[in-house]
Each structure stands twice: as C-alpha cells, then as structure tokens.
Amino acid sequence: MCQKMSNVLFIVLSLFLIINIVASVGDDAFTIYIDGGKELSNIRADLNKVIDTDNNLSTKLNEIESTLAKITALMEGLTNDMKAINDEQKAASNKCGVTVKSGSARKYKL
Description:
- By secondary structure, the chain is mainly α.
- It has helices at 2-25, 38-95.
- 0% of the residues are buried.
C-alpha cells in the first residue's frame, strides 16, 4: 500500500510541478481545460468548419481550373482559325495576278 501511495503522490506532485512551470514560463503557452469536454467539442467543431471551408475552396479552385482549361481551348481554336483565315487570304492574293503590257498591245488606249 505504501508503494501505491508514493506513486500517486509522485504523480500528483509531478503534475503540480508541470502546471507551475508552464504557468511561470508563459501564461498563454498551454491551456488546460477541465470542463467535461465542452472545449474539446468546440475545438472539434471549429476544425470541422475549417475542413468544410477547405473542401469548398478546393471545389471552387477546381471549377476555376476547368474554366481556364475551357478558355485556353477556345483561345487555341481561335488562333487556329485566325491562321486558317490568314492562309486563305494569302492563297487568294496569290491567285490575283498583275500583268504589264506595252502600250501598243493594249486593247483600249487612254
């Protein structure tokens, strides 16, 4: 019995010593809550809110990323279309030829 009492006394004194050291080092270093778990449930609720917010943020970022991918695809399509139009204009301008004839060979003279 004496050994058990000394162990309990040692644990109580150690806990008291730890609490006093923490209190003397800094008031805000550690907070020990003995309120039946209410504070822990509040902390858990806050953590759940943070997790939900993180999930919502991830969802929004994924939507933004997919929208940017769509915009990039549209811009690439627009670039390809502009190149095709430019190539068509170059091909059309190559078909238009200019010939120069001497003055005597002209059909109509000014």
